[in-house]
Amino acid sequence: MDIDLKNCKKCGRLFSPEQDTKICQKCSDVKDRDYELVEEAITLYHKITPSEIAAHTHLPQERVNEILKTSKVLAQDVDSESVCTQCKKRPATADSDICLACQMAMFKSLNDISATLRATSSATKKPQSVSLRDTMTEKRSRSGFKKFNPVTQSIKGRN
Q1: Could you report how far apart the first and last alpha carbons of the chain are, in Å?
Q2: Bridge pairing between strands 6-7 and 14-15
Q3: Which are the contacts of 54, defined by CB distance < 8 A and separation ≥ 6?
């Protein structure tokens, strides 16, 4: 009988994984408890900052930030403490390092760049051939293949 044992990524204990888990049951319970504490603090104190959550739950600030990073649902109800990395004026959104105004400016500039690229690529394209005959003539001229002319050559190569 072969027993599969793994070391817990958090505490290093040996455990028998029931599924494809990387942490032991004890660490998993602690993780769930921390998540519930953060969720309860957000529910009770609406729109609080991560440092206020850490003070109310007695969890380390890093742990609260980790929970908020992994749970986008919880992060929506939390005010951001970080300042925008672009303008350094407004608070960053909860799920990003930049503020909403800078995000909108970035999306606008990306849209402008893509419109410019589309315009330049359509200007450099050759107009589409009108008919199948024109297309085949163009392809033959590129490949060096000439149309068979029965007046100048016979099928068997006789003159």
Answers
A1: 87
A2: antiparallel
A3: 60, 61, 63, 64
Rounded to 5 degrees, φ, ψ at 76 are -65, -30
Phi and psi at residue 92, to the nearest 5°: -75, 155
Long-range contacts of 72-76 (CB under 8 A, 24+ apart): 74/38, 74/39, 74/42
Classify 124 in phi/psi space as left (phi over 0), alpha (psi -120 to 50) or beta.
alpha
Q: How far apart are the C-alpha atoms of 69 and 159, rounded to whole Å? A: 83
Q: What is the spatial distance between Cα 129 and Cα 135, in angstroms, rounded to a whole number?
A: 6
- DSSP reduced 3-state for 114: helix
Residue 58 gets the label, from left (phi > 0), alpha (psi -120 to 50) or beta, of left
Q: Determine the Cα–Cα distance for residues 137 and 149; give it in Å rounded to an integer.
A: 14
Tens of pLDDT along the chain (159 residues)?
567 788 888 888 888 877 778 888 898 899 999 999 988 988 888 778 888 888 989 999 899 888 888 877 777 667 666 788 888 888 777 667 888 889 999 999 999 999 998 888 776 666 664 688 788 777 877 776 666 565 655 555 554
